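FAQ: What does the model actually see?

It sees only this:
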Amino acid sequence: MRFIFSVIVVFMSCNVYAQEFFGICKIDTLDTNGAITYIEKILEKNPENLECMITLASLYLKKGKLEAGFEYVSRAYKFNALATQKSSLAPIVRFALNMEELRKKAYKNNTVEDWNKLGDAYFEFGAYDMAADFFQTSFSKDATQEQIGLKLAQSYKKIAKTHEAIIVLKQVLQYNPNNFYANYFIGKILKYSSFDATDFQIYLKKAEELLEKDKKLISNPEYPKFINDILYELGS
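And it is asked to produce this:
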């Protein structure tokens, strides 16, 4: 047994040496964190190793670390666009490049407009945790952005951060008590959350009042859906 163990250790050591020496970045392991650390070390020694860039992009995306993943996609593309487009990353290359460009612009300019564009892109992609981060950055700069406040609340709700969603909606209502969507959403959330739901009727009745007063607050096709849902929730 000791002999077999020694052979395995020697083989693994030789394999690691061969991978580092030849710059090969093919990792077959369930230990994603370990693989990332190992490959990044190889890339430090050989910054032009395209296979390492592509593998790191895939591993980070697999972990849900989208920013890091898109950054490596961009790095690989800049080094060898044709090879990257023919790699396993092909389906996401264009999208990743666009997201990386938006990210760089947002961090560089630090304007609400750029943070909002980045938040919108991640929201549409379905990465609601990232969208929430970027919308929050924008909203903290200007809490009068009612639409962004609503998007931030929606993002929080989708990642089960109900308390945070309620706080944001209350901020929107503090700025504009007559925001129909903020009243509607907070009423719905309060009724079906584990928090004190006694106030849900106040918000839903306010939403009903606003809608009855001005039906143009929402599009005609949506009016029956919203008014019927409000009446149902109020038990009318």
